[in-house]
Amino acid sequence: MTVNLMIATFVGAFIFPFLLRVCVDPLIKNFGPVGGWLFAGFVVGTCWTLNHGLSMIFQSGHAWVDMAWAAGFGLWAASIYSGDSLPKSIPTFINAIIGGTLGGFILSCFLK
């Protein structure tokens, strides 16, 4: 993997959890449940298009990373950085693993 691909992969993996952390609360506070739908439609769709449609994230071989893992681990790291203790953040870590694994399994059921 070249340095350019490493940088693009890191930035691509950073974008989604960063926007999730910054945008979800204000959208939900201002628009209620519709704010969640707005986030899902605009931000998730845009991040997916950047990372997978434009291949910003480089994946070699047959490995896959579901966006739920990126979001879960990104928010887990952010919760520790913002002052939560490591034991308090373990449920987020476990839910990220379960959500990413479930998402990947569901995708593997119909994507070949």
Automatic annotation (TrEMBL):
InterPro entries referenced in this protein's UniProt entry, alphabetically: DUF6905 (IPR054200)
Segments traversing the membrane: 31-51, 93-111
Key words of the record: Membrane, Transmembrane, Transmembrane helix
Keyword hit for Transmembrane: yes
Protein name: Uncharacterized protein
